[in-house]
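User: Hello, beginner here. Can you help me understand these amino acid letters and fold codes? It all follows right here:
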Amino acid sequence: MSVPQETVELYTYSSIHLDVLGPDPPDEEALETNGYLRHIRSASDEEKGGGFESKLACMRALLDAVNGLFYLPDQV
């Protein structure tokens, strides 16, 4: 009796595209060089141990701010 062979498609990574309907937010390098992180509190040692970085909070706030600024219902 033979063992059945199963072939499956391998995983391939594809990057996420977010259509924010607004201006493009700055990239992570620009957060540091343009001073955005000066307005976000620093992560504590416990938060850093859990993988949290201040860049995450800053990027989330910027995405929330620009998301939907150019929204026009008839264009969607």
The two ends are 57 Å apart (CA to CA). The longest helix spans residues 54-66. The CA atoms of residues 18 and 67 lie 10 Å apart. The chain is about 30% helix and 0% strand.
